[in-house]
Design brief:
Elements (H helix, E strand, L loop, with lengths): L9 H13 L2 H8 L3 H15 L4 E4 L2 E4 L1 H32 L1 E7 H6 L1 H11 L4 E7 L1 H9 L5 E4 L8 E15 L11 E2 H5 L4 E3 L4 H13 L9 E3 L2 H9 L5 E4 L4 H6 L3 E3 L1 E2 L4 E9 L6 H11 L9
Parallel strand pairs: 3-4, 3-5, 7-12, 8-9
Antiparallel strand pairs: 1-2, 5-13, 6-10, 6-11, 6-13
Helix pairs in contact: 1-2, 1-3, 1-4, 2-3, 6-12
């Protein structure tokens, strides 16, 4: 229900009470962190709404008129109620900020989130943080269903009902065992890659989706025919290193293996395997509290992985 047009705003009423308590418009202005001309302007506006003077200015300061005393008496009830409302809102925000549920795709959860978590702990040490890990489709579903306030995916775009923002860039890489014929090649062609069954993540994985989009952008008629489908990054690396076949993984996931030469990266001629890592949240509901802090940490340039 709309308020009556002559009801003053809370700041003007609070200022009036301060003037009466402190006995001076100047001291009240200082207490409220505003200039005296600004305080005078607010009181004049209040008097215009009331239709009567509410303060008498004297050489000794300011005191309420009879009408001002009545307005002040009524205002105290309003200001007390506003303070109770503010305290209640603060309690709700504290409860919200005490827990954070995050969902992240496996690559992000394993290779990026731990670093983000350290920064978030420094900002919000009292927040309890729960991480749900899965493929990008599962992460999106968790955010849509309200089981996570914010999610992080590897898919090129977010499903309907979710907003997304770029937080980092990554690159997929085709890896093989050191004894695989491709390990001795300086590069292979896109046609060779498309004709070879690969070890993949399961359907719904952001890694797989990004790879399939990259290939079909060059070869529209290509259809994937996986050699193996595995839901674990570790299982894929183990299978590839054992010589089962080439695998597609994030460069983040194979840094140690490439450094130790237990896996070899195979460049692909004419194929761009760079991709975006994205934060997601429900459409129209920007992250707040710790979720907003986590997004800001993930979005920082220094938090982004180096491009392979």
């Amino acid at each position: 229900m709309p308020l009556p047009p002559r009801v003053p705003d809370l700041t003007a009423l609070d200022l009036l009470l301060s003037v009466i308590e402190l006995g001076s418009l100047g001291r009240a202005a200082e207490a409220h962190g505003i200039t005296q001309p600004s305080a005078s302007s607010r009181i004049r506006h209040l008097e215009k709404l009331v239709g009567l003077p509410v303060l008498e200015r004297t050489t000794l300061g300011s005191r309420p008129t009879p009408a001002g005393s009545l307005v002040a008496e009524w205002a105290r009830t309003v200001i007390d109620a506003a303070q109770q409302l503010g305290a209640g809102i603060d309690t709700l925000r504290a409860e919200r900020d005490s827990h954070l549920h995050v969902a992240a795709s496996q690559t992000i959860a394993e290779y990026l989130f731990p670093r983000w978590l350290m920064s978030l702990r420094a900002r919000t040490p009292g927040t309890s943080i729960a991480l749900r890990s899965g493929n990008s489709a599962e992460v999106a579903q968790a955010v849509l269903e309200g089981r996570a306030e914010i999610g992080f995916i590897e898919s090129p775009r977010a499903p309907k009902g979710l907003e997304s923002r770029l937080v980092a860039r990554d690159r997929l890489v085709v890896v093989v065992a050191p004894g695989h014929p491709w390990a001795r090649r300086t590069a292979i062609t896109l046609d060779e890659l498309a004709a070879t069954p690969l070890i993949h993540r399961e359907a719904g994985s952001g890694t797989r989706t990004s790879f399939e989009r990259a290939v079909t952008a060059q070869l529209p008629d290509w259809r994937t025919a996986p050699l193996l489908e595995l839901s674990s990054t570790t299982a894929i690396k183990t299978a590839a290193a054992s010589g089962a076949g080439p695998a597609v993984l994030s460069s983040l996931a194979v840094q140690a293996e490439l450094a130790s030469a237990t896996l070899r990266a195979v460049p692909i001629t004419g194929l761009d395997l760079s991709r975006s890592l994205r934060a997601i949240w429900p459409t129209g509901r920007r992250p707040t509290g710790p979720a907003r802090d986590l997004y800001a940490i993930a979005h920082r340039p220094e938090a982004a992985p180096a491009r392979a």
